[in-house]
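An instance as discussed:

___
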Amino acid sequence: MSTTDRSPQSRPVQPAGVSMRELLASCAAANAISTPPRTPEPVAREERVEHRDAA
């Protein structure tokens, strides 16, 4: 057997394309970058209520 003859089982098989983990990570990063920051919620103004003192 020569060194150029290798069985398919002796070589690690690399999948074609991108792994699902890398795809999801890239989508999450793109979403985080393209989403504008949230606007602050308006602060509710508290109305002063004057209580009358008991007589």
